[in-house]
Amino acid sequence: MKVGMKMSITSRGKKWEILNSLWILFTFTLAFFNWIGFFHIGRKAKCKKWIFSGLIYSIPFILVMVTGGANDFVAGLTIILGIIGIIHAFMIRTEYLIRLEAIEKGKVLSDSEVKKIITTIKLSKMNLEDIGYPQSVSVNDVVEPSFSVEKTAKTEVKESPIESEKPNKEDYKNKSIDINTASESELASLPGIGSILAKKAINHRETKGYFNSVDELAETLSLKPHVLERIKPLITITVLKHEHRDDNTSNKSGRIIDF
């Protein structure tokens, strides 16, 4: 999934999502044929509520077939249900794509599981916009895929997705992260960093040496000012010096700087 005007909803990519959203075109026939689209997605996603919606939207069509023509009442009902159907279709598109992906992987999701996945997608999108990644960065490199059959089976936990996304401030307070010695996973746990920037920091350490200041870190990772302010209290920097010994190895020593 690529970050752009709109990120992908599923792990299948935009092309798959567009092809499986063509049913929405039926809604632009107003309420005369829009019921076909809702019957279609209800059957494919094994979701009875959308089949029921299709029955409601089919009322104008049924009335025309029974009476042999359209009167003012049927015409008005067609327009009203048609407008509602278009709005309804776009509102449930995300849920349908998530359910369809799960069906293709052999799992039928409950309503609570779908809500958790949608919440995770929204949080991921907000985090990416907050960090300000360029459009060429892959969302899959920054966050977990929006859906995994194996992981969905384990989503029944007491902690909500919103709570699990928030950094544990007490942990940060008790243990600062030294950016010159921290592992990739430790760096990625900092708010606003993620795995992409963590890898970039590790590559900088391996190729160009250690970070000498927090400003050097911010410049290397192109951090926005508000992100930098968030991580300053959570990190320390060991300023390292290299001394050559007789055996041509480097002896590292330094001091800890707390921010």
Automatic annotation (TrEMBL):
Q: Which SUPFAM superfamilies match?
A: RuvA domain 2-like (SSF47781)
Pfam name, any one? HHH_3
The record's annotation in InterPro entries points to:
Endo/Exo/Phosphatase_dom_1, RuvA_2-like
So where does this one cross the membrane? 20-38, 50-67, 73-92
Membrane listed as a keyword: yes
Instruction: Write down the Gene3D superfamilies for this protein, in alphabetical order.
Output: Photosystem II 12 kDa extrinsic protein (1.10.150.320)
The segment annotated Disordered runs over 154-174
Q: What is this protein called?
A: Helix-hairpin-helix domain-containing protein
Whose protein is this, by species?
Clostridium aciditolerans
